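Something for you to look into today, if you have time. I want to see for myself how the chain folds. Leave the record below and I will have a look.
***
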Amino acid sequence: MKSKIHPKYVDAIIECACGNKVKTRSTKKHIKVEICANCHPFFTGREKLVDTEGRVEKFRRKYGKKAVSETKKVRKRRRKKKT
């Protein structure tokens, strides 16, 4: 291996949005994650909506229930045209 080209490998803390902290080693000292094994729906068995930066709420405000009904109407029209 060449010397002086590799990043430093230091002790790191990975912090989840639920508050869980894990100590490990990485090239970064502090890592923040949104979901971990303690709060992930696959491991907990509970349903959880993972919303990144409020995208779900933004979509619902912008389109609301009308968007869902409109897309259903468009799909029905397309099916009728194909047959």
Remarks:
- The chain has a mean pLDDT of 78.
- DSSP finds two helices and three strands in the chain.
- The beta strands are 10-16, 21-26, 30-33.
- Residues 51-83 form one domain.
